[in-house]
Design goal:
The structure is a homodimer of 552-residue chains. By secondary structure, chain A is of the alpha/beta class. Chain A has four domains: 83 residues, Ribosomal Protein S8, Chain: A, domain 1 (2-Layer Sandwich), CATH 3.30.1370; 138 residues, Succinyl-CoA synthetase domains (Rossmann fold, 3-Layer(aba) Sandwich), CATH 3.40.50.261; 164 residues, Rossmann fold (3-Layer(aba) Sandwich); 47 residues, no CATH class. Chain A is built from 19 helices and 22 strands. In chain A, strand 19, helix 16 and strand 20 form a beta-alpha-beta unit. The relative contact order of chain A is 0.08. The model of chain A has no long low-confidence stretch (mean pLDDT 89). At the A-B interface, helix 5, strand 4, helix 6, helix 7 and strand 8 of A face helix 5, strand 4, helix 6, helix 7 and strand 8 of B.
Chain lengths: 552, 552
């Protein structure tokens, strides 16, 4: 098949623009496949895996690569500039657009927040500028250096300002979702999360349970490591403790550095409000210490935050002992919790993310046995949109997994809300249908994280997935229970111990107290006046044991 | 002060007899202190620490050392043989005592169980003999080789027999407590525990909550490691699943080997009954998977086993930010759970047992900062009775800790029941009183694990501790909450983020979707028509940044 390509050196494009370009190229006459990505090593490898010949040109991570397959490839490449001009846009079209942050700050003097999603190498400077202007920062950009993060957060703290991020995917401030966020009721629960989909899943569940959110702060995934020392999390906790609209606080994170965990928990313990803590993968040994309650799952965190009882849901899937499961996730925390939950039940289990006790895949592009992949990991998102916005990679992988007969169950998450793809199932459902047509017995579970108020229309999204043949869950806890019901295998049988006869009868050899105690409790007992063989002489004892063995 | 000693080479004595001898020597006229121990290195070091000159003789681990201080020392040593004859004994005095297990088995043909508590080096052979006679084994002895344990358990499994232990401290079979066990109601909860005091604490709590025990199996602490592969735990789980008297099952252990955890959980998952799992220090990410519910503490395991709600108890101790805490435990699992619970709240924290993230003491005999010591660890019990039976070591340590002004809180457990000291507070309370006389502000918390039916009389034990000035708790969860209330320090204050003004206003730099989304949600927003500085040229950008910095 004909392939045409174009490399634009050192180009900077908004990654949404790139996705739109890729989609428009794919829809052109005579185009079989199209790819528009920054030429990172990871992206090149994925292009190669999809059958694009990337060795016919030289391109670096900063370069934009456009590749098109099909008879119309040449014509398509010729239309790139035209397609790049055609930008879709929302309600802000035609409004005044300042060229710099400083100008913007003058014209919007009451703006408290600056949202930054420029490429990582530019982001720290923009964030410094925003702090210097006295603004809080929501820093969506990733690939920001750790030392920049520390410097930004220290500066912010000194000024009484917040820096959420870098790599902060989500927040809800004064009822407005920033980044990826679901439309949820306002209410009395405040959230601090170093975990994007963790925050989304908990806010959604709280909304499902009839509760609401006062403020929800993302901190960025590195906030709780030792270098950053939880600056943002501690500030946010303090904010919520002082906030009259917040009555309960939820704190979610992957395992923090021990020193940071201590600081956070001491601060949580000092709060005057109940604090629900869920550190994924962190072993605690208490239900509650003072006002701090420990949750075991995202769902439980939401239940505790709304003081709701867990209703035991009937998981109506039979134990079918499917062959291997393949989880293709866009939400990192969802993948992480699933892995932790499956870890002690399912073996062998692989992943591309760091989870203690779960080995990493040799190659993230190739599943092994049971696999849970986080497609939102850096290796997949460099120079490419997050899988919550761009389904292309997941669709490719879904088709691949389905051709592997060892895969009996595929699990997908579909995260709705602000920032996410406007209609994800319009792309996913047809592929699911196609895959199920070829393999009717392949089970597909979809976990939909969203609310009725979300712009995608939750009911419609679920309906389309169900029509395509998915089992759909709107709660990770229930989904995990369905997954285990499908794949956990029964243990090997072995000789059962016969029921004890009623009434205990004991022979005691050793401490006399045990004999006395058995008698006092009404058991039959006999005490052996035991003495060490051969008077305790080890050599003699060895001889006796040998003699005995040879004699029997 | 005069010291006299006697070494009896290669002697074998029942360790209860040794304790009684030590007590009787101490009570003689003119005796200031007495010690009767096997001459292990650890014991010699402890003798040295107590001011006994152990370098005046040569003695090895197999030798009995008797040391007496005081004017009456010589006379006391002269009476050792006489005192050794004077053995106290229970109800079985005068009954027929066969000299061997084989003879005993003939005279008690219906005996299903053999209790073995002879020294470790003899124990495996006795256990093999018991299995060959078709008996289940309760193996209290420790210091049994791992390969012996594997061989014994494999033999037992093939015969449909159980081997609880080695180092199995406790079990309740057909209503009779074996080893250390509390007198609890019979009922519908079956227990499998690789944790002695874990089993005791949970059975006691279930009894407190009005529930009861069908069967409670100890497995020995090594059962769930990879070599033994959970043979006993799996057999016991299977037994309880088939047992018509058992309606709920509780499974307790320190973290199992991952492969064993998987086997156990798959088996638990296959049970037709609810199984409550509490693996101390093992991070799970689910409240429940199918019929398997995960508990976060011993108390919660008991609550779940009896389907009781946790009542929020008022811990009526003020936050006084005591200086360091010193925990002196006889129950290993109690110490372990306390450490896991304190780990993220209290720093620095030390122990003598292996708990991930908690450093070990340089010397187990000397506390540092906050310390939790398990005095039931091998290093303290070689050739010496377990601290649940013998308070001597704990009393010494209690006095030592009290002389350290940095110690503001001392925590003790007092485990009642079969096998335990007949009246522990008769020895502990006077020392607590003495210590409190010297330091009235020293806080002492006692955790009493027992039932009203226990032979020691729980009410009387608690009364004596309270009269001596202890805060007494009968539940580890409440005790942990009291301890944290006393010692967790408040976090450092820092500049608080001011409340956001009502109504969100945003400046957006980067992805346009975030701008659109903010507008759609009704926020004020302004979008910056951002372009990389210097057209994305990194060198130029660096120059611009410098220029900018020098200009401000």
């Amino acid at each position: 098949m004909k392939t045409k390509f174009e490399v634009r050196q050192g180009s900077y494009y908004d990654s949404i623009v790139l996705m739109q370009l890729q989609r428009r190229l794919s829809e052109l006459e005579g185009v079989a496949d199209a790819a528009v990505v920054m030429a990172t090593e990871a992206n090149k490898e994925m292009l190669r895996a999809s059958g694009f010949d990337v060795d016919q040109f030289v391109a670096y991570a900063d370069d934009l690569v456009i590749m098109v397959k099909g008879d119309g490839a040449k014509a398509a490449i010729g239309r790139v500039d035209e397609l790049l001009q055609k930008r879709s846009s929302g309600g802000g079209q035609g409004q005044y657009r300042p060229k710099s942050l400083a100008t913007a700050a003058k014209s919007a003097a009451n703006a408290q927040w600056v949202l930054i999603s420029v490429p990582g190498r530019y982001a720290a400077q923009v964030a410094h500028d925003a702090l210097d202007l006295g603004k809080h920062v929501f820093l969506y950009s990733d690939n920001v250096a750790l030392e920049d993060e520390v410097a930004l957060k220290q500066k912010a703290r000194a000024k009484g300002l917040l820096v959420m991020g870098p790599d902060c995917g989500t927040a809800i401030i004064d009822g407005v979702g920033l980044g990826f966020a679901n439309r949820v009721r306002r209410g009395n629960v405040g959230i601090v999360a170093a975990s994007g989909t963790g925050l989304q899943a908990v806010t959604v569940k709280i909304d499902q349970l009839g509760g609401g959110i006062s403020q929800a702060f993302g901190t960025g995934g590195r906030d709780l490591n030792a270098a950053v020392a939880g600056i943002t999390a501690l500030q946010a906790l303090d904010y919520l403790n002082n906030d009259p609209d917040t009555e309960r606080i939820v704190l979610i994170s992957k395992p923090p550095a021990p020193s940071v965990a201590t600081q956070l928990l001491q601060s949580a313990y000092a709060c005057e409000k109940p604090v629900i803590v869920y550190f994924l993968g962190y072993a605690v040994s208490a239900t509650a210490i003072g006002n701090v309650t420990f949750a075991r799952s995202l769902t439980e965190a939401a239940l505790l935050a709304t003081a709701t009882e867990l209703e035991k849901s009937a998981i109506d899937v039979p134990h079918t002992y499917e062959p291997y499961m393949r989880g293709l996730f866009s939400g990192g925390t969802l993948a992480y919790e699933l892995l932790l939950a499956l870890r002690p039940f399912v073996t062998p289990l692989y992943t591309n993310i760091g989870v203690e006790g779960v080995p990493k895949l040799q190659n993230s592009l190739v599943s092994q046995a049971n696999t849970v992949i986080d497609l939102g990991e850096d290796e997949f998102t460099q120079g490419r949109l997050h899988p919550m916005m761009d389904n292309a990679l997941r669709i490719r992988r879904l088709r691949e997994e389905a051709t592997d007969d060892a895969a009996g169950l595929i699990v997908l998450d579909v995260v709705l809300g602000e920032g996410a793809h406007a209609d994800p199932t319009s792309e996913l459902a047809p592929v699911i249908e196609e895959v199920k047509r070829n393999r009717p017995n392949l089970q597909i579970i979809a976990i939909v994280i969203g609310t009725e108020a979300d712009p995608q229309g939750m009911e419609e999204q679920i309906g389309r997935l169900q029509a395509a043949g998915c089992l759909v869950y709107t709660d990770l806890h229930n989904a995990i229970n369905a997954i285990t019901a499908l794949i956990v295998s029964p243990p090997t049988a072995y000789k059962t111990v016969s029921p004890f006869n009623a009434g205990l009868s004991i022979i005691n050899v050793g401490l006399e107290t045990f004999y006395d105690s058995a008698l006092e409790q009404g058991a039959e007992a006999i005490h052996v006046e035991w003495r060490p063989p051969a008077g305790g002489n080890a050599q003699m004892m060895g001889l006796l044991a040998k003699l005995k063995r040879s004699g029997t």
